[in-house]
Amino acid sequence: MKKPLLGVLLAVLLLGTGAAPALASGHGTAAPAKTSLPVATAPAPAAAADFAGTVALSNCSGSVVRTAGSQPDDPALVLSNGHCLESGFPAAGEVVLDKPSSRTFTLLNSSGGNLATLSASKVAYATMTDTDISLYQLTSTYAQIQSRYGIDALELNDSRPAQGAAIKVVSGYWKTVYSCGIDGFVPQLKEGDWTWKDSIRYTPACDTIGGTSGSPVIDDATGKVVAVNNTGNEDGGRCTLNNPCEVDENGDVTVHQGTNYAEETYLIVPCVGAGNAIDLSLPGCALPKP
């Protein structure tokens, strides 16, 4: 995973004092420090960035999202990664549903300025099985966010993105936009105990770093969210934490050091029912179930 930022900052502090280059990630799992890039230093902001609708978490990035069927008076949803949960990484096979949460999110304006603090009422859904997503339900509705702050939610695309599509990865934490393309799709992406299916592989320009976890991946042509940024192979390791490996249809394993990945989000759309409730029994809903 793109390490939650607490782990990244701890790495810098530990290395600065001569400690061993192993650190606890943001959720207490041992992980190697990334020495090729000083990830505690923010990358340069994009020249024409648009951060409207994105949020910064305490350790990750995220976005306020809606489906085409979401209503103005529905409680808004924030999308991030399952591995960004404040309670720690969900175990392989674990699904979190309707768990109370009071987590807060910093809402950004189009230029990346801090607009407001939004609060969650619960984790509506989260998992690291087959995909790596979390959906927080907020105490504010879409209409309230729009009227108070002039911010509209980003819409989740309801279909699978295309190979070669131009995309942007918008990090609310670092207030940085990465522009690249969809290089291809990975049948299985394995990292530690977790396996994700049909993951997106970026072209090299999306050199995402710690703290970008949970960033929305936005299709340039439609402006809709097609995926959520989640991991990259940092050290060339094979299927280990922070070093995912690709597994093809024949079971052959390949490793691409420095390559970064995202998880598609169109699968969320059929699972959002009336009132923005996550209903895993809805027709066409294929998200993992408890």
Polypeptide structure, described:
The chain is mainly β. It folds into two domains: about 55-155 and about 270-275, Thrombin, subunit H; about 165-265, Thrombin, subunit H. It has two helices and 18 strands. The strands form three sheets. It has a six-stranded antiparallel barrel. Strands 11-12-13-18-15-14 form a six-stranded antiparallel β-barrel. Strands 1-2 form a two-stranded antiparallel ribbon. Strand 16 and strand 17 (about 255) form a beta hairpin. The longest helix is centred in the N-terminal third of the chain and has 12 residues, at about 5-15. The protein starts with a helix and ends in a 26-residue tail after the last strand. Residues about 5-40 and about 45-50 have low confidence and may be disordered.
